[in-house]
């Protein structure tokens, strides 16, 4: 069944107050609800429908009198009085049997919830839609030491606790946690002087992994006050770490629930990258308190209203806390790796979709990351000051409301007087625009003209695309590498449009799309010389990195399609750059990186060539070998530049040095047979160095002893063992990936019911590009078999993990047929979930 944006109608009733009482039991939890409803003056349809799934209804009353509602799979309807009335019900649910991890479920003896998007209907009968907001009071009865829900704590006693959340909220923000937990506590005083108690709740034993998360929370709270003028609004802020969780984390009001992998950290067990990600996710969930909770979404089609904006805000936060250019480059790497394939394949959908079958399938890179890019463009177009004014108006005008993209754009239109009708296409048109450029130089007039052409290829359901508003940041350099025109924002609105620069004394070298000012594919091949020039001279760090990236891409392409040798201009350029001690080591580490093999498959596909995974792998190896050879003379100098003084800290400075060190180590391993990596593995006193060394040994095929030692050292730590599972599959040689992944699914610590562990094996296998795309198709079958098994238990994670198949039409006929057959086999599975059915059928059709 498909749901359409155009069919939106308001709910017939408003919720005035909600009282819930939970009597916890793993097999038979009782949930009593008392909800005050009143007719909604803005609605015409007065059908009283409550969502409810997998509930056993024990009793129902309206204004105290027993009623017999008509029940369906999806919920119930009932006759109700004309005016306000009170609905009371009691239902029974079985959290321990809930392996879907949606609604109320159990994770290793602890009760927890995940309600976004539509999980509350698995807890009790309720109008489970984001535009219905109510004030919740919750009583929890259970034989567990810690009983938590949203809002502020009220009375509590032995085996019970009461909570009251004064802020009206949709049901998707409801949360309950009960377990044997310990708190890492702190406190925060808001700008206006409200004292807030902060707690990070974890299992006994994990207390040592809380300090960093708590600091990140306090930094986020301060940052949102300083940058967006947003203060926290309750007396407590609780975060809980849960081992079994489908996603990263969830912004439930006053009670954020986190995948333990997204919050627990210590130097011994977490990498620098983990620390950075944790800081960003804590910020993201905290920022949702305003962009998501105080102002929520009218319906799930508006998901990007809160997600795109909150991702944008957390990126700004990370850029402020760490290095802005490094964050921007990392975000673009991620966008190209995850969003571009989605936007250019069968799952392509607009930032604001117009229909869906299962909303959980739309928590995508397009909604989140492209959604954030759209906000970045808007900010670039209107400028920082107008952006700040528009946001202030947004908070002022819409606090307490459930809003739409129209509301969002209206504050920008009202503040700037701009007509944003065309800009709005970014929300409705799917697909990645392609931008091409022609240059003209009139030496006599000193005039330089850039003529752009934009075109967005068709996507499923959208054969024709209209031109979009593209903010194109451009700078011009002269032949000496000096900047003669500083970064200028060109606003492209037509399919074809020219921009002229006057008064130049010589032909400039353009630096186009600085900062990746619009999420497009720039089709331009200026040749290796100009790229090498920009690599050496561009003042825009993003484009400087991009020049190196392009050289690497072109080298790999020529290697793959023409059997060329690795490009010397690229190697020389990189060698000069990484030696430059005036540059941030983190930036140099990014410069040393090369496109992933799946990125190369994407690039080949964009250029109309069928990617051959084995040839891509061979080319990547050859380029890495050549780089190792080229840089060997400076390994020692680079190692010096990476030297860290003092105790481990996961800050930008130290992380950057370690990132450069790891990049160098992986090249060094190709030259010294793993001697340096083995020494680092043995002496490492933090996970960043230990895992980097182990990864090098896995790549070198010298990993047997180190893998065993690592397992021995860390078998008690679930999160570290996830790394152990994932890394040895992702980094091993393609031939070895399948046997290894198969063997690891038989490992006693493999647990398909834990999403982190399942992803560590199956997700990592799909990341081994040539291993997954084995010509014999056995990689596809292996993943499909496990997806079928998991679907019966956890549809959400299964559906998400279908993504590696989305590129199936890119490959050669043999692989295509094998991938299609694997997808078809999943599709044909009896009683396949709605989630997975939607994903595989879109992939097969699109
Ligand atoms: N709102 C959460 C976040 O962005 C994600 C929750 C998604 N949950 C889901 N079942 N799709 O932080
Ligand atoms: Zn979010």
Automatic annotation (TrEMBL):
Alphabetized UniProt keyword annotations: Aminopeptidase, Hydrolase, Metal-binding, Metalloprotease, Protease, Zinc
Swiss-Prot/TrEMBL GO biological process terms: proteolysis
Catalysed reactions listed for this entry: Release of an N-terminal amino acid, Xaa-|-Yaa- from a peptide, amide or arylamide. Xaa is preferably Ala, but may be most amino acids including Pro (slow action). When a terminal hydrophobic residue is followed by a prolyl residue, the two may be released as an intact Xaa-Pro dipeptide
E.C. no: 3.4.11.2
The organism's place on the tree of life at top rank: Bacteria
Domain Aminopeptidase N-like N-terminal: 20-173
Residue ranges constituting the Peptidase M1 alanyl aminopeptidase C-terminal domain according to the UniProt record: 529-845
CDD domains: M1_APN
Residues in Peptidase M1 alanyl aminopeptidase Ig-like fold domain copies: 431-524
Cofactor: Zn(2+)
Annotated signal peptide: none
GO MF annotation terms: alanyl aminopeptidase activity; metallopeptidase activity; zinc ion binding
All copies of domain Peptidase M1 membrane alanine aminopeptidase, residue ranges: 213-426
UniProt record similarity statement: Belongs to the peptidase M1 family.
Name the UniProt record assigns to this protein: Aminopeptidase N
Native source organism of the sequence: Roseivivax lentus
Highest classification ranks of the organism: Bacteria, Pseudomonadati, Pseudomonadota, Alphaproteobacteria, Rhodobacterales
